[in-house]
Design brief:
With about 120 residues, the protein is mostly helical. It has a single domain (about 5-115), classed as de novo design (two linked rop proteins) (Up-down Bundle), CATH 1.20.1440. It contains 4 helices and no strands. Helix 1 packs antiparallel against helix 2, helix 1 runs antiparallel to helix 4 and helix 2 (about 30-55) packs antiparallel against helix 3. The chain is elongated and about 45 Å long. The two termini are about 20 Å apart.
Length: about 120
């Protein structure tokens, strides 16, 4: 399937995986709670912003929304890294999500550049 056609499904699946991750975090750990809230917000925003981008009324609005998608995907990666670095979860458990976040960043970087005529 074409990457761009697959992205609505892929970004929603990513959000659902983030939700499951959040629900599985230790409840009594303050750091887990703080970082979990951040990763939940940014990780679920990726698909929502991508959906908004597809409803853009102009090329400029599309470029702006894709920029938001890229920002949220990269931010999610940051929070996932902190969850590992703060020993909330082992790197092995988060690796599949981090890989997906990295792939989404790469895809949306390409879309952003092409939309701007840079790639």
């Amino acid at each position: 399937m074409n990457d761009e056609l697959d992205l609505p499904v892929r970004t929603k699946q990513f959000a659902r995986r983030i939700i499951r991750l959040y629900c599985g975090l230790p409840k009594a750990n303050t750091v887990a709670h703080i970082l979990g809230n951040q990763v939940l917000r940014s990780g679920t925003s990726v698909g929502a912003n991508y959906r908004e981008a597809h409803r853009a009324r102009s090329k400029a609005e599309f470029i702006s929304k894709i920029g938001d998608v890229l920002k949220e995907a990269d931010e999610t990666l940051y929070w996932l890294e902190l969850l590992v670095e703060e020993n909330v979860l082992p790197a092995k458990r988060l690796q599949p999500l981090a890989t997906e976040a990295n792939e989404l960043v790469a895809i949306f970087t390409t879309i952003s550049k092409r939309s701007k005529g840079l790639g």
